[in-house]
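[Automated response] Your request has been received and processed.

Submitted sequence:
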Amino acid sequence: MTPTFRKSVPWLTSIGLFVVWELGCLLLQVPEYILPRPSASIMAGWEFRDAIWMHAVQTLYTTVVGFGIAVVFGVLLGVFVGSSKAIYDALNPLLIGFNAVPKVAVVPVLVMWFGIGTVPAVLTAFLISFFPIVVNVATGLATLEPELRDVLRSLGAKRRDILFKVGFPRSLPFFFASLKVAITLAFVGSVMAETVASNAGVGYLMMSASSRFQMPLVFAGLLVIAAMGIIMYELFSVIERRSTQWAHRGQQGA
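Generated structure:
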C-alpha cells in the first residue's frame, strides 16, 4: 500500500459512507424529519452558517477549557497515584467509582450550584475527560520495571530522579493516548451539558432545531461536532508522533 493511497483511505471511506447514506435515504424514501440526507444537512449548515459558527466557537471554547483543566489535574493526580503502589491501590477504586457515575446525572447538580451557562458545560467536559488522563499517567508510572528502578538506585539515583527523568518520559505514550481519548470525551461532555443547561453552543442549537423539527440542522450540528473532534484528535496525534518518536520506531520500520 503506497503512502498516498494510505492517506486517501479515510477520505474515501467517509465519502463512501455519505454516498451510501444519500442513496439509502433516496431509495427508501426516508422522511426528512426522521433521517435527512447528507446533502440536506450540508445545505442547512450553509444556510445557518453564521449561527452554527457562533455556537461552534462556544462549544470549542467550553471543551478546550474543560479539557485543559482535566489535563492539569489529571497529570497531577496521575503522578500522585502512580508514584506509590499503596496510593494506587487505595485510590483506584474511588477513581473507578467516580468514573462510573453518569455525568448526565451530575449536570442538574452543576446547574443548581452554578446556574445555566458556560460553567456547567466546562465542568462537565472536565469531569468526563478527567478519568482517562489520570489512569493512563498513573499506569505509565506504576508499570516502571522494578529491575530498572533497582539499577537506577544502585547508580545513585534518587526517587525524584527516577520519577522525572525516567518515569515521565516512559509514560508519555500513555499520556498522549489518554489525550486523544479525553478530547473526544470532552466534546461529549460539553455538548451534553449544552443540551440540558445552556443558552449557547452546538448542543443548544441542536435542541432548539429539534424542537422545531429541523432535522437537517440537527445533523448539521452533529457533523460540526464530529469535524471538530477529528481535528483535535489529529492535532494530538501529530504532537504525539513528534514527541514520542522513540516509541514508534519499530512500527515505522515495520
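Summary generated for your ticket: The radius of gyration is 22 Å. Residues 39-248 form a domain with the MetI-like fold fold (CATH 1.10.3720.10).
If you did not submit this request, please reply to this message.
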